[in-house]
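Model it.
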Amino acid sequence: MLTQIGAGRDIYVDNIAGDDRRDGSTIRTSGRAGGPVRSLRRALELAQGSDRIVLSDTGEPYRESVTLQAGKHTGIAARPFEIIGNGATLDGSAPVPQDSWKHVEDDVFRFRAPRTSFQTLFLDGKPLVRLFVDREVGFPKLQPLEWCLFDRHIYFRVEKDRLPRQYDLTHTSLPVGITLYEARHIVVSDLVVQGFQLDGVNAHDSVFDATLVGLTCRGNGRSGISVGGASRVRIIACLVGNNGVAQVRTEGFSRTEIMNCDLVESANAPAVVRDGGLVSINADDTPDS
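Modeled.
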């Protein structure tokens, strides 16, 4: 069994040229069944043990949400289960329906957000500047291309003589980019994870020997990376910023190592928010209790 797990194989994914009816065995279409699959979800259905899932960066985001779970997506220490992003983007956002905007006043419009307290608004795939509402101070004065969330509505100020439908606006839609649950010996690398309502990556519980390396986690409604339960996660050389509540959040009895990362904090979203767990930043630091 260990020999079979250790061998592993590569499963190729291409969200433009791929086809989920193929077996993912080759990077290009080959024969009746060979060739890349189209979705990361299908690759995870085919994968097991110490396989590697290899994404093609086609320039088009992979618009899906996936889960890695115990047994099926568990490698061994010498040969972990891997997702290799090659710079591709996993995106959980969805377009704002053009007919959903209602005029408020002046250049300010609003639309009713989905039932969640975590949201991000994007223009051309990049997070816009958000202002936070202080109910004691009153509604903030939005500048052009700024937004805020108030009473389940997203308020957005357009530029002069423009309308919301003239912009390519999207908002967080899918809940979590990559959920890790009771899986072990995992590496996820070189991937952009953005636009999810809660977290870009969530190590939910009992995830051991998981390494996130070279990820960019941005524009997620709650956090870029969340580590909870009794999970053990290493975060290496990642760029995490523009997330709603925290760049990295931890809870429960988890242990998180953060090494050589750029955590871009803001006034409303600190670099690390701890609701439990132990966190060490860089190799020489002692974990916080």
